[in-house]
Design brief:
Blueprint (H helix, E strand, L loop, with lengths): L4 E4 L5 H10 L4 E4 L3 H8 L10 H10 L3 E4 L7 E4 L14 H10 L8 E4 L7 H12 L9 E4 L9 H7 L2 E5 L2 H12 L6 E5 H32 L3 H8 L22 H8 L5 H24 L7 E5 L14 H11 L4 E5 L15 H5 L4 E4 L22 E4 L13 E3 L9
Parallel strand pairs: 1-2, 1-4, 2-3, 4-5, 5-6, 7-8, 9-10, 9-11, 11-12, 12-13
Antiparallel strand pairs: 6-7
Helix pairs in contact: 1-3, 4-5, 8-10, 8-11, 11-12
This protein binds ligand SAJ.
Ligand SAJ binds next to helix 8.
């Protein structure tokens, strides 16, 4: 059977994208180097957590529209959705994109559409991707339609946002943008904007940088409020009553593979010009340390305290622990040999991490302090749950303002409202 679309990378973006095109009737082959993921998908199952995705993948695999493979296959269109991590020195690692391009290049034919969805540093399409296809003998101006169409979906809402969000399609030339835009319009209800590759690269990076900088402002406010003795959440709430103000939410840092990474792609190319972006990154990176200092303050009068760490994913209601500030806090705590640490996360499977996980009951048993680092929905009503009964002290430090406060003299709740009370 002819393959309409070959998607390289079966992760948080590639798999749902494949499933949505398959649902729309295209014959889709999803490619991944992870044999376990490939086998699971071919059984109609999935290896990631995302609402609605298990049912959709089951359906499109069962009706033969989606199958997974370890190797790319010839198709009329290709989407590259592989990770672009950062090196230790914060420079972008685009090797997966390069090898994906090199793997599909021998299979492509004149008239094919090739789309890079992975987030990439500015000029990658022109300086890296284009020459790869030229090396394989293509005239990229005429033979192929190559475009960057950055993914912009929010984990937890991927299936909705893939269809509803505006897409930016940046072609190597205007015709490539038009052809790639037509391809997306098969499934996207939102606006599909055509532009050049560099503008698309920068628009994507600035979206996440905007958010990172605004969260940094909220996190800096927490530190300022801590010094001044003022309730940071009240300040944010009241300031945000102004029609043109939207201070973001503070937290134990900024995680995930997007906000904590993408700004560095801009910094790498323009270090002199990106001062604000770098400062914001530094502020957000300092938050795990700030939280750890407050935790130390809370247990300073307890010998060998037991601390329950609740939530280790990079944000609430997902299972992703990549670049998680909670993990950084945890590592600091584990390094302190006088602390007894017990971790609970209702979204993370033990088989996916080397961190020893506990049930909520075990984590809280005999605990002197519980620290909430992720805003999972499961934690909202924590303060009324039976599992609290066996805590040694019912002291909570909620860095995400997820716990609903209770009127209970035994329970002491700290968050960024009253963090200045901790010394
Ligand atoms: N966070 C805060 N305060 C806030 C909002 C978020 O501390 O007010 C933290 C979260 O806890 C988390 C991090 O920021 O650690 C990132 O969370 P997020 O929900 O803001 O974003 P991601 O990384 O899950 O997804 C982002 C989205 N970008 C934007 O909203 C501009 C998504 O649309 C992108 O597709 C994704 O990055 C990506 O792949 O680039």
């Amino acid at each position: 059977m002819k393959t309409d679309l070959c998607v390289v990378g079966m992760g948080y973006i590639g798999l749902p994208t494949s499933a949505i095109f398959a649902k729309n009737g295209l014959n889709v082959v999803g490619v991944d180097i992870n044999e376990k993921a490939v086998n699971l998908i071919n059984e109609g199952k999935i290896h990631i957590e995302e609402p609605g995705l298990p049912d959709l993948v089951k359906k499109v695999v069962e009706n033969g529209k989606l199958r997974a493979s370890l190797k790319p296959v010839p198709a009329d269109a290709y989407i590259i959705a592989v990770p672009t991590p950062i090196h230790e020195d914060y420079s972008a690692d685009i090797n997966y994109v390069i090898s994906a391009c090199k793997n599909i290049a021998p299979l492509v034919k004149k008239g094919d559409v090739i789309i890079v969805e992975s987030t990439i540093p500015p000029r990658t399409m022109n300086d890296i991707v284009q020459p790869i296809f030229e090396e394989f003998g293509f005239n990229v101006e005429e033979d192929l339609y190559i475009a960057h169409c950055p993914e912009r979906v929010l984990p937890g809402r991927i299936l909705i946002e893939l269809i509803e969000n505006t897409r930016i399609v940046g072609g190597l030339n205007a015709l490539a943008a038009k052809k790639a835009a037509e391809f997306y319009k098969q499934v996207v209800n939102g606006e599909v904007i055509e532009t050049d590759a560099l503008t698309a690269e920068m628009a994507k990076l600035m979206e996440n940088t905007f958010r990172d900088v605004n969260i940094a402002l909220a996190n800096e406010l927490v530190k300022i409020s801590d010094k001044l003795g003022v309730n940071a959440y009240d300040v944010i709430q009241f300031a945000n009553k102004h029609p043109r103000v939207n201070i973001h939410m503070p937290g134990p840092g900024v995680g995930g593979h997007c906000l904590a990474v993408d700004p560095y792609f801009i910094v790498e190319k323009t270090p002199e010009e990106s001062q604000l972006i770098q400062t914001a990154r530094n502020i957000n990176n300092s938050m795990p340390g700030f939280v750890v200092e407050k935790i130390k303050g809370l247990v300073k009068n307890t010998d060998n305290p037991k601390i329950a760490v609740l939530g280790i994913t990079y944000k609430g209601n997902v299972d992703d622990i990549r670049e998680s500030p909670a993990i950084e806090v945890l590592h600091h705590l584990l390094a302190n040999k006088s602390f007894n640490i017990a971790v609970h996360d209702p979204h993370v499977l033990q088989e996916n991490t080397s961190i020893q996980l506990h049930s909520l009951e075990d984590a809280l048993k005999d605990a002197d302090l519980a620290v909430v680092l992720t805003d999972h929905g499961e934690f909202k009503n924590l303060l009324t749950q039976d599992e609290l009964a066996n805590m040694r002290s019912k002291i909570f430090f909620d860095t995400k303002k997820v716990l609903i406060p209770v009127e209970d003299a035994e329970v002491k709740l700290y968050n960024f409202n009253n963090v200045f009370e901790i010394n």
